[in-house]
Amino acid sequence: DVQLQACGGGLVQPGGSLRLSCAAPGFNIGENDMSWWRQASGKGPEWVSTITSDGSITYYADSVKGRFITSRDNAKNTVYLQMNSLKPEDTAVYSCATAPFGPLGRGTQVTVSS
Predict the structure, then answer these.
(1) Could you give the CA distance from residue 21 to residue 113 in angstroms, rounded to a whole number?
(2) Sign of the torsion angle spanned by Cα atoms 34, 37, 69, 11
């Protein structure tokens, strides 16, 4: 089974930034469209963004459009989520998965609070 691992989360103040990374040792991320998802406490998973395998096209949920940027470095077998202008409602566990509906990997907690 693929073991995707997200990292880079933490506690940040509103308006701050974080960059998350997603990698999977032994799995070639470069062959796949990849998605970021998030899940807030007590809620179901929410799709955040998708990037095509070559990185040429990205898609974003309306809730993050203009604030988040998804990118990838296939040479490093890694996908990134740059999160800017963070809001308290962005607080969630963020995970990555193969698109469109691959199983979510191990997530990382992002908490936006003053």
Answers:
(1) 21
(2) negative
